[in-house]
Amino acid sequence: MVTLKGKISLFVNLHDALAWRSRNRIQFRFLNRVPKSNASSVSHWLSCLLSSCGLLIALSTVDRYASAEETSAQVLAKAQAARIENETSLTSASGNGRLKVVVVDQQNLETLEVTDASIRLKYAGSKFSFLIENRFRLRPVESKRRGQRETWQETGIAKELVMFDGDALYSVQWMRDGTCAGSIYFAFKRQAVLDAAGFPFEHPVHIWKEAVNLSAVRSDLTKVTPLIGGGFIAEQLVGSNRLRIFMFDRFGYDLRRVSTERLSDGMPLERYDLSWKEASGTFFVDTFTHTKAYQVETDPLTNTEQVVSRRTVRIEYDDFAVNEPVPSSAFQLASFRIPVGTEFVDRRSSTQLFAPVFEFDGKELDRKLAQPSHGAR
Q: What DSSP string runs through 299-329?
């Protein structure tokens, strides 16, 4: 049952929403017909009526997941259980979509699109292949002078493949000049290799993991506020910042937003936004947006950090199939038209003086003579 404390909390939330509407000048047409002398009394009467109706609605709402009797620890535990259930239910996937990266200059309010690419994903168990085909992809030209605007140049990368076949992690890069090169890594290098390929996240399928690690959220330091329609908002202070987690309860607790802002002035530092779709009874993230402070400078007069620019990465899938068979060829190098003779440097031998080099023969890799490993990227 919802306790009296919970009823009051729900009423306060609704009353705050009504106040917000008032501040944003939401007008009611019939008030225009009321003489100005009576407008304030009618407005007061209307506010009381709506508040009373809202209270009745709030009192009749029973949130099965985040009732007022539940502690923060219980609510967060249920959210974590829902996330694990969703993760284990998605065993394979195939998707096609787009990857875009935009940098916004906060001072000049100028927007620069630095990456526009199509993406193709195949996933089955622990195996995956992620192909990025760039329409264009820019990279910054480093500048060490404070206050100087950053410049960008084309990378010349036509497309890039990151693939894990269950044993080794492969990276293949096709350049616009026709050259091609590959590397081999340990599986734990996945995040770094994907980031280098232009996909700055570790989980191609369970991408929601990038936004928040629920198991790391301390319930004793977290304030959980139930939402009238289901779900909750969790708020936690992390050092000098405030972390907010927004979850609905469409299929347990579906993560919708995670934001971090500076306590002193409310300056936004980082934000994740997610939308979900359902296929074959399983929910998946179809749109994922991450905005973060990209360039930060310290004001010498106030000794405070100011955001110079922000970077937004957006992944959006046009089609996504869930829990359908994925052919084993999706995790074989021979399926990606890699030119015969392309060399693969084995980066797993970083502790050795020479790294093994393999040559692609059109079907598999053949061992070649070793070469120095100090040039490995």
A: -TTT--EEEEEEEEEEEEEEEEEES----GG
